[in-house]
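User: I'm putting together notes for a lab meeting next week and I want to include a structural view of one of the chains we've been expressing. I don't have a solved structure, so I'd like a prediction I can at least talk through. The sequence is below, exactly as it appears in our construct file.
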Amino acid sequence: MAKESQGIICYWATVTVNATLAENVVGELTGFSGPSMSAGVIDVTNLQSTAKEKMIGLYDGGQISLNVNWVATNDGQIKLRESLVQRTKGSLLIQLSTATTAQKISLEGYVIGMNVNGAVDNVLKGDFSIAITGGASFTTG
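Assistant: Thanks for the context. Below is the predicted structure for the 141-residue chain, given as structure tokens.
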């Protein structure tokens, strides 16, 4: 059964202790994309092979993008901007609902990009790109 996307809470912290405190909530989250995980393919074909032979290399956690309504005073958005400027690794937790048995995506990474967009008859929008280091975990509970 499909999972609705309402009720998602996103946290960003540069320390893992009490990472889910309200001050770490990335406010006004409007969407996210990722993690975009993939693994490299290693060609192990040899002269005795009758067809291409392959192995899978280490998997790469890839990247994740966060889309927000830009709120310059939101603590979570401030921490993301500071992490980019200070080159600080952080922990991201996306709680996929407010239920007690919520599915969660957790990872560590570096903020590698930020963009602010403004347009006529619209609110300011922002995007953050995070390069994942190590991998991502998917849990329930």
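A couple of points you could mention at the meeting. Helices lie at 75-86. The longest strand covers residues 125-140.

User: Perfect, that's what I needed.
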